[in-house]
Amino acid sequence: MAAFPFSVSATDGKARTGVLTTPRGEIRTPAFMPVGTAGTVKALTVEQVAQTGADILLGNTYHLMLRPTAERVARLGGLHRFMRWERPILTDSGGFQVMSLSKISKVTEQAVTFQSHIDGSRHVLTPERSIEIQADLLGSDIVMQLDELVALPASEDRAADAMRRSARWGERSKAAFGARETQALFGIQQGGMSQALRRESAERLTEIGFDGYAIGGLAVGEGHQGMVEVLDYAPAMLPADRPRYLMGVGKPIDIVEAVYRGVDMFDCVLPTRSGRHGQAWTWEGSVNLKNARFTDDEAPLDPESACPASRDYSKAYLHHLVKSEEILGQVLLSWHNLAFFQQLMAALRAAIAENRLEAFRSDFLARQSRP
Predict the structure, then answer these.
(1) What is the pTM assigned to this prediction?
(2) In this predicted model, which residue has the larger pLDDT, 151 or 336?
């Protein structure tokens, strides 16, 4: 029995909408989790993030264990209290950042040894230590197993080795996590672009038994079409009575295509990263506010939005802020982008509930692809 009840209220093809119920609140699915890497969603207050409609945030094990350290966060009352976010938090295992950010990392069967990208200090991350940091020190609601990530393209042998090590680390993560009523543990499917390896991974994880299942190892170089090809089969390999989480994804078209194929949860730095660089996401595609054509544009990004950043400021003003490198420009565009992503999730939930996802998807993809 899963730690958190997951109920599906409606389906439309492979897509589902429902609720994951946690002690800190309900998570409406499909759900997008803003990324709070270092205990903050960059440029925004938790009140602003909550106003966008986010039910859950993602915290980052790697960054928090290095600074301010997980032990310090624990002494200060845990991550929820530290950052003043009372709703659910999912923490990643640290594996992705170890592979992508550390100056030197070495993977063995026992652990990942790496050097901090901040000061070069040496650290060892085992499956057990990752669980301790996430569950016991940070106090996250949803904990991820430690896995080994492989950048794509990769050989089948390399993908197989990483997948099987990830499965073994999944067993160790589950043993370290034990049985908890107020926290959940998710396993992570790996296997690169191989359908056979993805199936083997799903079978191994299902045998271990997790509260939810993530699809890992995508958005790491395979491209949109490659991702979609894996999503044509990968979600259905995972238990239907548990939430399915596509890690690190993504662009609005990626999210729509993944929901269409049965994915329930997402996270990505894209909304805030784009906002810090002058890019806004809209129903008509992305908009570059650096562009001179917005110099005298008095229209807001979205006059129908409930978000003040989307509704109350002209594109001319946002263009001015971006060109002047004013911090407020980064704040407003990050806020707008997160609000848009949450509006997209709400629209997807409604489309599934009303059995009109096919039409919504076709219309959305057509509007996003216009020049």
Answers:
(1) 0.97
(2) 336
